[in-house]
Design brief:
By secondary structure, this protein is mainly β. It has a single domain, classed as Porin (Beta Barrel), CATH 2.40.160. Helices cover 10% and strands 60% of the residues. The strands form two sheets. The protein has an eight-stranded antiparallel β-barrel. Strands 8-9 form a two-stranded antiparallel sheet. A hairpin with a 4-residue loop joins β2 (49-59) and β3. It is elongated and about 75 Å long. Mean pLDDT is 86; it is low at 1-26.
Amino acid sequence: MLLISVLPLSAQGTKAPSDTRPESQGKHAPRFTVTFDLAGAVMCAATDWGQYEIGLKARVHERWYGALELGIGCADATDANTSLHYTTRAPYGRIGCDYNFLRRTDTGHRLYGGLRVAYSPFAYDISGPDIEDPVWGGNTPFQYADVKSHALWGEAVVGLETYIWRFVRLGWTVRYRVKCSEKKQDIGHAWYIPGYGKGKDHFGGTMTIGFEF
């Protein structure tokens, strides 16, 4: 009898462990997530082009998030067939929104789709072998420096985010990009557009680490 009477008291004095995930504090609590694109930084270090990008997401409703992404795109590449050398380093920005498709929004995990509008004002250098005049003879240097351009494009985004530890998040996105406009110079379109990628590519992606507040 004594054991039976002690058990209810023990149960009343024991509190359930609280969820350490920030989203457990309420579905409508304001949340901000700062992200860094790991894939773009690795590409900058290991390949001919890439980007350094930081992003900010803000929850404006239970399922809706505003998104702002800013970065520096860089390229230093030589075409193996034409020997043309292309370099650029310039800023870009994207703004848009995401919608979380998961039914439960209190878990902290997100499967979302979104849209972005992006813009980059940039300049690039391009050089290559001298051009030989077939009529008069002689060579003309092929070298252009500080060629000004700009581009506007849209992106459709599908992404996944999950907690890896407390307020630290890991995420992936796949993006389909469509150019709306690009300033074309006499020498042609830019080989690489900061934030967009190589001029003829449509698909891209990111792998991000984020910190939620």
